[in-house]
C-alpha cells in the first residue's frame, strides 16, 4: 500500500486558506481586488461583527456567466494567466485563482452575478467547498458576495482571531489601502449598519484628504518625478506633522500596496534632521514600474515585491523627496544671503529659552599655591582646610532636611585628603556608622546604603509604578477621578483613530476621559486628574496609539491604558528636594506588589555590591 496519497480537494483548499485567508480582513482585500479587476466603478463593503458573522462586497463590474460563476470557485481557476510569461506582465490584482476557492472552503458563501447583456443572473451557495445551490436569479449587473460564518469548520483558526475591535481595525487598514490605490472608484464601508467611509471618486489628493481628514490638505507636499526606471508621484506630510506611530505610511507600485523596509529607509533618510525625536514621517507614494521588472509572486498576500532595479529606485525616492521639501521651503537650502544666526535644530525648537548663568567662585585665589587645592573641596570652598567628613557636611549644609534645596541634593560631592598609607575598609559597614539614609543624584537616582552595598532606585520609574498600582486598584471598583478642562482640547485624529476612540468610549470614560467626536476631530472636556497640563498631550498620544495601532487582547487593554496614563503622568516635574519626599517615594514603592519593574518591564531597582565597588578601586 502506498504511503503517499493525493489530498482531497476540500482539504487542499483548507490548507491553501491558511496561507491566503488569515483573518476577515484578508477576505475583504481579496473580494475588493476582484471587484476592481472586474472593472467596477463602485464597490460597497458591508461588515457585521468585524467580519465574523458577515462580509458582504457588492460591485457593479462586468459580472460572470453561469459557467464562469461555477468555475471561479475551482482551485487555480483564473482569467489572468495563460502561460508562464504572463506572470511577469501582470496589471491585475489577483491572478493565482486561490482566493475564492480558499474562502469557499472555510465559510458559507453566497454569490450573485450577472452580465450586462443577460436578462437574469446566477446564484451559487457553497458550504465548505460543496456546492449546495446553483440557480438562476434576478439581480443587478455585477457581482455580490456574502461570506458568513468564517472559519466555521476550522474552530482552531476561529479561536485565534482577536477581539472585534482589533479585527475591524485590520479590515479598515485593508480597505484604506485598496481605496487609496484607486481614487477614481467610489468606495463605501459600513460596520454594523454604521457608515464608516463614503469615498467619492476624484483626484488622488482628494482621496488622501477624505481618508485622513480635511485639515490634511494644507499639510501635503506633492512629489513628482519621471524617469526611464520609475514614475513617482504622491505626497509626503510636512515634518511638523510627523506622528508617533508608523500608521500613515503607504507605498504602492502599479496601484498595488506593498511593504518595503529598504524604500522606507530612503524616505526616512530624506527627512533626516527635520523630524522630532521618535516621530515618523507620513507618506503616500505611488510608483509606476514596468511589470516585467518586478515580481509580485513572492508572497501569498502579495505585500512583498521584488524589484529588479531597487537601488536606482532608492536613489530616485531619496532625491525626489529632498527636492520637494526644499522646493516648498521645508528643508534647509543653500542660500548665502539668508540670515542663519537664529536657525535651531528641530529638537531644540520646543525647549524654553533660558538665560545663561555665569558661576563665579568668590573664594578662588590665583596667587595661592596649587599644591593644596586638592585637600578640600565642597562647592568651591577655600583651600587649605581639611574636608569635613560625609556626615558633618550633610549636617552643616542642610542635606537630609526640608530646607535642603534640590540643587544641593543634585550637586553635593566631597573629596577627602588621601592618607599616606591607605588602610582597606571593611566590606560590611557597621550599622552604627555615621551617615545618611539616602541621597539623590541628578534629581532622578536615589542612592540608599545597605548592609551589602548600595541600592539605586530610578525615581521616575518608581513614581510610574506607584501611580499604576494606585490607578489600577481604583479603576477596578470606581471610575478614575476627572478634572474638567477650562478650555476643551481639540485633537485631530485619522478616521481609523476616531473609530477606535468611539469603540472604546465607555472604557475611556471610566478612565477619566470625557469627550466626543465632532467634524472629524476629538473634543475633550475632561481628563484624568492625575495628569498635569504638560503631560496631557503625551497621554493622549499614548492612548490613541494603544487603541488604534496595537494588537491587544480584550482582557489586557484596560491595563495597557492605565499604564499609558501612569507613564505620562510620571513625566511631570518631580519635587524630591527633601529627605521626607525621598523617603515617601521609597516607602510607597515597596508597598507595591511589584516594586522591581515598571508595567512596561523596565528595571526600577539595582544594587551595587560592596565587593564590586571595592574591586573598581584595586
Write up this protein.
- The protein has 618 residues and is α+β, with helices and mostly antiparallel strands.
- Helix content is 32%, strand content 21%.
- It has four domains: 9-197, Histidine kinase-like ATPase, C-terminal domain (Heat Shock Protein 90), CATH 3.30.565.10; 204-327, Ribosomal Protein S5, domain 2; 370-418, no CATH class; 460-590, Ribosomal Protein S8, Chain: A, domain 1.
- The strands form five sheets. It has an eight-stranded mixed sheet.
- A hairpin with a 3-residue loop joins β17 and β18 (453-458).
Which CATH-level-2 architecture of the largest domain? 2-Layer Sandwich
Average pLDDT metric: 79
By helix and strand content, what is the structural category?
alpha+beta
- CATH fold title of the largest domain: Heat Shock Protein 90
List its salient traits.
21% strand; alpha+beta; 618 residues; 4 domains; eight-stranded mixed β-sheet; Heat Shock Protein 90; Ribosomal Protein S5, domain 2; 19 helices
List the topology elements.
Elements: H1 9-20, H2 24-37, E1 42-48, E2 54-59, H3 66-71, H4 99-105, E3 108-114, E4 121-127, E5 130-137, E6 142-148, H5 155-159, H6 164-181, E7 186-191, E8 194-199, H7 204-212, E9 220-226, E10 231-237, E11 249-253, E12 256-258, H8 261-270, E13 283-288, E14 294-295, E15 306-307, H9 310-327, H10 346-349, H11 390-396, H12 406-411, E16 439-441, E17 445-449, E18 453-458, H13 459-477, E19 482-492, H14 495-503, H15 505-510, E20 514-518, E21 521-528, H16 536-549, H17 557-569, H18 579-590, E22 605-609, H19 610-616
Parallel strand pairs: 1-7, 11-13
Antiparallel strand pairs: 1-2, 2-6, 3-4, 3-6, 4-5, 7-8, 9-10, 10-13, 11-12, 14-15, 16-17, 17-18, 18-22, 19-21, 20-21
Helix pairs in contact: 1-4, 2-6, 8-9, 13-17, 13-18, 14-16, 16-17
Amino acid at each position: 500500500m502506498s504511503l503517499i496519497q493525493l489530498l482531497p480537494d476540500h482539504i487542499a483548499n483548507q490548507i491553501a486558506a491558511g496561507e491566503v485567508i488569515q483573518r476577515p480582513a484578508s477576505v475583504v482585500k481579496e473580494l475588493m481586488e476582484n471587484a476592481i479587476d472586474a472593472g467596477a466603478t463602485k464597490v460597497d463593503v458591508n461588515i457585521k461583527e468585524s467580519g465574523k458573522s458577515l462580509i458582504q462586497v457588492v460591485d457593479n463590474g462586468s459580472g460572470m456567466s453561469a459557467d464562469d460563476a461555477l468555475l471561479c470557485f475551482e482551485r487555480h481557476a483564473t482569467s489572468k494567466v495563460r502561460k508562464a510569461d504572463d506572470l511577469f506582465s501582470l496589471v491585475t490584482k489577483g491572478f493565482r485563482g486561490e482566493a475564492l476557492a480558499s474562502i469557499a472552503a472555510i465559510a458559507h458563501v453566497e454569490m450573485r452575478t450577472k452580465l450586462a447583456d443577460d436578462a437574469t443572473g446566477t446564484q451559487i451557495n457553497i458550504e465548505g467547498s460543496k456546492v449546495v445551490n446553483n440557480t438562476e436569479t434576478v439581480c443587478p449587473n455585477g457581482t455580490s458576495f456574502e461570506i458568513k460564518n468564517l472559519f466555521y469548520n476550522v474552530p482552531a483558526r476561529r479561536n485565534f482571531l482577536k477581539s472585534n475591535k482589533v479585527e475591524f481595525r485590520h479590515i479598515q487598514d485593508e480597505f484604506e489601502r485598496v481605496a487609496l490605490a484607486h481614487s477614481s472608484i467610489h468606495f463605501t464601508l459600513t460596520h454594523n449598519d454604521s457608515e464608516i467611509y463614503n469615498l467619492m471618486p476624484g483626484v488622488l489628493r482628494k482621496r488622501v484628504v477624505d481618508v485622513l481628514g480635511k485639515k490634511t490638505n494644507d499639510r501635503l507636499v506633492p512629489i513628482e518625478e519621471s524617469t526611464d526606471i520609475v514614475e513617482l508621484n504622491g505626497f509626503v506630510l510636512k515634518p511638523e506633522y510627523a506622528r508617533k506611530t508608523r500608521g500613515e505610511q503607504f507605498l504602492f507600485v502599479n496601484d498595488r500596496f506593498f511593504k518595503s523596509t529598504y524604500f522606507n529607509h530612503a524616505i526616512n533618510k530624506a527627512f533626516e534632521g527635520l523630524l522630532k525625536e521618535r516621530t515618523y514621517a507620513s507618506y503616500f507614494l505611488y510608483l509606476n514600474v514596468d511589470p516585467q521588472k518586478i515580481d509580485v509572486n513572492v508572497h501569498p498576500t502579495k505585500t512583498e515585491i521584488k524589484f529588479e532595479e531597487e537601488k536606482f529606485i532608492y536613489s530616485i525616492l531619496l532625491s525626489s523627496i529632498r527636492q520637494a521639501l526644499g522646493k516648498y521651503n521645508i528643508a534647509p537650502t543653500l542660500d548665502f544671503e539668508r540670515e542663519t544666526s537664529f536657525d535651531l535644530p528641530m529638537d531644540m525648537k520646543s525647549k524654553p529659552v533660558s538665560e545663561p548663568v555665569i558661576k563665579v567662585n568668590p573664594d578662588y585665589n590665583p596667587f595661592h599655591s596649587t599644591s593644596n587645592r586638592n585637600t578640600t573641596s565642597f562647592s568651591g570652598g577655600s583651600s587649605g582646610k581639611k574636608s569635613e567628613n560625609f556626615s558633618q557636611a550633610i549636617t552643616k549644609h542642610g542635606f537630609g532636611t526640608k530646607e535642603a534645596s534640590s540643587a544641593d541634593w543634585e550637586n553635593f560631592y566631597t573629596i577627602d585628603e588621601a592618607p599616606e598609607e591607605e588602610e582597606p575598609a571593611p566590606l560590611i559597614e557597621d550599622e552604627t556608622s555615621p551617615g545618611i539614609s539616602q541621597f539623590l543624584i541628578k534629581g532622578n537616582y536615589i542612592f540608599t546604603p545597605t548592609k551589602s552595598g548600595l541600592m539605586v532606585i530610578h525615581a521616575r520609574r518608581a513614581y510610574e509604578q506607584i501611580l499604576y498600582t494606585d490607578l489600577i486598584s481604583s479603576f477596578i471598583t470606581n471610575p478614575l477621578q476627572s478634572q474638567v478642562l477650562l478650555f476643551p482640547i481639540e485633537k485631530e485624529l485619522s478616521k481609523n483613530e476616531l473609530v477606535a476612540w468611539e469603540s472604546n468610549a465607555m472604557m475611556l470614560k471610566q478612565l477619566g476621559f470625557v469627550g466626543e467626536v465632532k467634524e472629524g476631530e476629538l473634543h475633550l472636556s475632561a481628563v484624568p486628574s492625575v495628569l498635569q497640563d504638560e503631560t496631557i498631550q503625551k497621554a493622549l498620544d499614548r492612548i490613541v496609539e494603544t487603541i488604534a495601532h496595537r494588537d491587544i487582547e480584550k482582557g489586557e487593554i484596560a491595563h495597557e491604558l492605565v499604564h499609558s496614563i501612569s507613564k505620562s503622568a510620571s513625566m511631570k516635574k518631580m519635587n524630591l528636594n527633601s529627605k521626607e519626599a525621598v523617603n515617601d517615594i521609597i516607602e510607597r514603592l515597596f508597598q507595591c506588589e511589584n516594586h522591581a519593574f515598571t508595567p512596561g518591564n523596565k528595571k526600577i531597582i539595582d544594587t551595587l555590591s560592596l565587593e564590586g565597588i571595592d574591586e573598581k578601586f584595586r
